[in-house]
Amino acid sequence: MISVIICSANPGYLENVTRNISDTIGVPYELIAINNAGTNKGISQVYNEGISRAKYQVLCFMHEDVIIKTLNWGNTLLNLFKDEQLGLVGVAGAGYVPISPSAGGGVNSQSVYMNILQSFKFSAKGTVHDYENPEDERLSEVAVLDGVFISTTKKVVAEFTFDEVTCSGFHAYDIDFSLAVGTRYKNAVTYDILLHHLSEGNYDSRWMLDNMKVFNKWNHRLPLNIKNISAAKSYKIEKATFKRFTDQLMEFNLPVNLAFTTLFKNNTFWNYNKGLFLKLSFYALKKKLSAKKA
Questions:
Q1: At residue 126, does pLDDT exceed 90?
Q2: Closest Cα to residue 88, out of 190, 7, 169, 235?
Q3: Which residue numbers delimit the Streptomycin biosynthesis protein StrF domain (predicted)?
Q4: pLDDT (tens digit, 9 = 90+) per residue, 158-168?
Q5: Residue range(s) defining the domain that contains residue 90
Q6: Distance (Å, rounded) from C-alpha 111 to C-alpha 170?
Q7: pLDDT at 47
Q8: Which has the minimum average pLDDT: 11-15, 96-100, 103-107?
Q9: Number of domains present in the structure of the chain
Q10: Cα diameter, the chain
Q11: Chain segment 166-224, per-residue pLDDT in tens
């Protein structure tokens, strides 16, 4: 039995996913759809409200712009959570979390795990099947999960709820929740559930600022490398991700000084690799000077 929790802002999407859940879940369930249109509530606050209302032991948080393709997916979740060490289950995630703010596993991490049909609202791309299963598994342990679909249990949310202070908006709550739960439990991607996500993420200044809050909060644990990525590969990920982060600050008209905040936070970059710290400091300085000239 499953409590499905949705933060809703689009009646058309909600109507479609409500019908879809009924047709595919295959087990007794309740749908807790909370209308968040026109409110000041962030998604963490809405999800915590859903948790307080839920009556079943397995909880599933999902976006409303999805269509689940797999029949009886509810049974899949119930069977997976027989493993009491399992904290979160999703359909997309990453096994590596870099020091710099990023979407998931950083730039070119090759540590992405997912099974999802992805459509695009902000570009003319056609639907693609994103299937990344490097170890050819049915269930892959990951560090963080994408919020499009995250399942957990009442036992887990009794210990960890969504952080309404750090994640007061609509971004990075999934990374934060995954990192919190991952301190005690395993997070995993299942390939036995396929869903169609009808729109991609919209990366803008609000996304970046929300992301920075979460990465600053967890800086003391980063980089998080649960897939034993080599030191050489980790170095490349950290270098590329910081550069992309700095470039995005400029793209979103945010102060380049925020890059230095990440560089100097807790001496994490210095302790990780002093040579890389110096290289990235020089890169950030060049970007800052170029921004002043523009």
A1: no
A2: 190
A3: 4-189
A4: 999 999 999 99
A5: 2-293
A6: 24
A7: 98
A8: 103-107
A9: 1
A10: 62
A11: 999 999 999 999 999 999 999 999 999 999 999 877 789 999 999 999 999 999 999 99
Query: Of 206, 207, 215, 205, nearest to 262 (Cα)?
Result: 215
Tokens linked to 159: 């210990």
Q: What is the pLDDT of residue 288?
A: 87
**Is pLDDT of 40 > 90?**
no
Where would I find the H helices in the chain?
11-24, 43-53, 73-80, 154-157, 173-181, 205-217, 231-251, 257-264, 268-272, 274-293
Mean pLDDT for all residues in the chain:
95
CA distance 181 to 196: 26
Burial of 116 (0-12, 13-18, 19+ CB in 10 A): buried
Cα distances from 92 to residues 110, 112, 161, 254, in angstroms, run 13, 8, 20, 29
In this structure, the number of other CB atoms found within 10 A of the CB of residue 230 comes to 9
Task: Write down the pLDDT at residue 290.
Answer: 82
Cα 85 to Cα 50, 152, 183, 239: the distances in Å are: 23, 11, 11, 34
> Which residue type occupies 89?
V
Q: What is the pLDDT of residue 294?
A: 62
Distance CA 227, CA 82 (A): 24
Residue pair 48/162 in contact (Cβ under 8 Å)? The answer is yes
| Strand ranges across the sheet with 29-35 | 29-35, 2-8, 58-62, 149-153, 86-90, 186-190, 139-142
Cis amide prior to 223 (ω within 30 degrees): yes
